[in-house]
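> tool_call: predict_assembly(chains=two)
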Amino acid sequence: MTRRKFALLSGAAVVGGYAGVKLQKPPKPEKLSDGPAGQSAVAIIRARSYSDDLAGRMLEGIRQCGLDVRGKSILLKPNLVEFDPATVINTNANVIAAAVDVFHQLGAAEVKIGEGPGHRRDTFDMADDARYRATIPKFESIFTDLNRDDVSPIKNFGGESEFYFPNTVLGADWIVSLAKMKTHHWAGATLSMKNFFGVVPGSVYGWPKNKLHYYGIPESIVALNRQFGPKSFAIVDGVVGMEGNGPIQGTPKPVGVLVMGRDLVAVDSTCCRIMGIDPEKVSYLRMAADLGHVHQSRIEQRGETIASVHTNFALIDDFKDLRLV
Amino acid sequence: MGLYLDSRLQFLRSVQNPDGGWGYFPGKASWLEPTTYALLALHTKGSDPAWERAWKLVRSWQNPDGSFRPGSEVKDGTWVTAHAVTLAGIQDIDDPDNRRAVDWLLGVVGAEHNIWTRTGSFLHLIKARLDVSHEGWPWRPGNATWIEPTAHTLVALKKVPARYRASEVASRIRDGEDLILSRRCTDGGWNYGTPNMLYYDLPSYPETTALALLGIQGRSEREYPGALDLAEKFRSETKSSLGRAWLQIALRTHARQPAPPGETAWAATDILLASLEALGHPEGNYKLFCAAGKS
């Protein structure tokens, strides 16, 4: 182990309680898996501002990916992290409002919103601050604080014989990861897959959900997606993303896109390429390569091309080597 | 009693579950955390059937190892064990069940308090400005130390009868307080766990600053200069209702007298918030968070 790696892991151990278990994990696969058979469709849709017709754009993207939600219950899972209306930490309220509208238009029986922020406990006040209540019709009646929802156990998850998840999450037919396109100081990037950290209940695992750090951040991302990926769809808010020291202290990065798809690995890999990050170097995507497609040749890009929307996101020094060449 | 406090207490009484506990929201399953704060908010001297039913439920959540489960559905013991010890403390309960809970708390330390991390710190290999020499308390055993569970445990241990494992309790209290003092952010307050990461200074937060101040009650203000003034500032500026409620409690336990809230009726559904707002009112039970706060 290099001095740099040891330093990184030790630092993570302190702030996220990461290293002790991390060192006992099996080594990451050397060769990237080819993933499941076939190809995955990922739609890149232009949305230059939050005042665009986001519902129309979203509908276009979802139809390109062929999602049928008629009669199903939908849980929209935004990324609500912090009080800070001035920057772009949280999924924009207009994106969530558009998604509520779109899934109703697509015939969903029920559309709910749920989020369990990672460290702040004041979910409703943060939602107010992010203008969710002001923007999303009937917000109060369709929103659940996943940190404080009632829970049920599932077997053998995250190295534990029983792991608890919110009933709202377990009961949804489809979970739509309404993530934000951001860099992340531990994972490299936080996109649709990392967004699932918010379904782990703080009432059981604390604020932050330190259990996930101990299991390993990439390992937890993959485990959560192995659990919920089969019933998930991704819509990544890249209208304005975040670069630099994300996911909280970075700076806004306008990209002008929504990225969507049924294969969350392929969606995140596409987002990485748009951001100038090599997805094949991102630990969690390498580890998730059996769940979906990382290889560009296996992703059927619909809507815009990557080249037409590509813009390099600034990366902190520890992740400079992720830059897509 | 004014409208502010009365409406919150009435709300709490109206949403007690048939099993005696409180959920995080009305109609939801009972959890130990909201049950604790509702009980503290509603606490009065003398016998109270509602309290008795709730306390019985809380006790039913104790595991054989002494820890407490956060609710009926969850098997594992967590930081809420501190809440159960606090509830026992304000009732002056010193029985074998409470002693097992105290034993469990004394046996739990933050996972970063290990030889590897301490060696890494000694060799300056840790990319954070952090003193890892203290034990503290995690949310769950096997995880790292965080400010909030450490503060809750300090409040609880300060209520343990002096005759039980006195020197060990005192030692862990002192070390836990030292941990909190060592993790102060450069802005003078506290955040969830670390003041610095990857050599970036991190900002403090209102609610964690309040909790840290609760945890270090009894230490000289000279050891945390300016923190109470920052807490006052946070209280007047924060958008977080939860942060404001915790700050009201913390400031009052430190003998500050923040302006009482306006006489607004309770109009929300968050049981934990209603409890904390009631506790932090000038006529509320905030003194139960003090070391000497008893029935």
